[in-house]
Amino acid sequence: MNFSINPSANPLPADKRQEILSNPGFGTNFTDHMAMVKYTAGTGWHDAHITARAPITIDPATAVLHYAQEIFEGMKAYKLADGTMALFRPDANAARFNRSARRLAMPELPEEIFLESIRKLVDIDRDWFPDVEGGSIYLRPFMFASEAFLGVRPSNEYLYMVIASPAGGYFKSGAPAIKIWVSQHYSRAAPGGTGAAKCGGNYAASLIAQQEASAHGCDQVVFLDAAEHKWVEELGGMNLFFLLEGGHMITPPTSGTILEGITRKSIIQLARDQGLIVEEKPYSISEWRDDAQSGKLVECFACGTAAVVTPVGTVASEEGEFTIGAGGPGQITQQLRRQLVNIQRGLAEDRYGWVQRID
């Protein structure tokens, strides 16, 4: 499928853009263009184009507003040392996007359309890359049911879009570790639910627990399993890793209730290749507490596209709190983060074929 390119007639002036790029923040400023592709039952995917970023008009009866048929991805474009723009494992994002689509009874998007929409948008908006520490162009591909009807059934029409946002570093080396709150009254997902899909409803359901965490002075919330409220699952938007003494690492298994993070998958590969023993197995909240208090647990971190790798220093709940290690970033945590970031930015050899250049 060929994308038609309709450049913006009114891009943001260079001086205004540079003002934003000097301190881009995260998710609050957006580039000049967006990608769009339509789907109609019986016709399939059509009308692929890159156009000026602008509001979209939808009918009040549009299905997504009533039945939440919506999925999305989160990924980044980086600038390599030679100035080339590149993507990190975009094929994995494309595959996960389609797994989410299947779970929500939405049409799958051919991988090449997904990848081409990303490449075209990054190419036309490459001047939006912020040359600050940890800078990137954050990409948000998403799809929603766009048919106007009131009835509980899959939509016959969908709109796939990609928007982009200049982003600064979410985590800086040496930054303090975060404090997280254990949610004991709310669940993120249950077996048979949408926990493994990247859909807006999962995040909406996590917000009240995040509010509870903030009220207790915590940065993030961690969810336990819905059945027993015993097994650690993940944060509101990040996967968790536990590093025990002796180079033994544990991360909860992706068995349908946990999102299969691409950063998570990459960290597992890097850790194993440097000799760490990584097990994907259940880890209980009581084990977490006991191992931290005994000193057996030496480091803990969360990971995801936006934050990359974030150390966890303190865990709080209604039963009190405990500290992991010295309460700050651990050596292995920071080492894994450096390895990953250096591959993403072309500062280290990519022997895995994870980085895809945009010519």
From TrEMBL:
Catalytic activity as recorded in UniProt: L-leucine + 2-oxoglutarate = 4-methyl-2-oxopentanoate + L-glutamate; L-valine + 2-oxoglutarate = 3-methyl-2-oxobutanoate + L-glutamate; L-isoleucine + 2-oxoglutarate = (S)-3-methyl-2-oxopentanoate + L-glutamate
Leading EC class: transferase
GO molecular function, one term: branched-chain-amino-acid transaminase activity
Origin: domain of life: Bacteria
CDD domains: BCAT_beta_family
This protein's pathway: Amino-acid biosynthesis; L-valine biosynthesis; L-valine from pyruvate: step 4/4; Amino-acid biosynthesis; L-isoleucine biosynthesis; L-isoleucine from 2-oxobutanoate: step 4/4; Amino-acid biosynthesis; L-leucine biosynthesis; L-leucine from 3-methyl-2-oxobutanoate: step 4/4
UniProt-listed InterPro entries: Aminotrans_IV (IPR001544), Aminotrans_IV_CS (IPR018300), Aminotransferase-like (IPR036038), B_amino_transII (IPR005786), BCAT-like_C (IPR043132), BCAT-like_N (IPR043131), BCAT_family (IPR033939)
Required cofactor names: pyridoxal 5'-phosphate
Region feature Disordered, mapped onto this chain: 1-20
Pfam family, any one: Aminotran_4
Similarity remark: Belongs to the class-IV pyridoxal-phosphate-dependent aminotransferase family.
The protein, known as: Branched-chain-amino-acid aminotransferase
Species in which this protein is naturally found: Sphingorhabdus arenilitoris
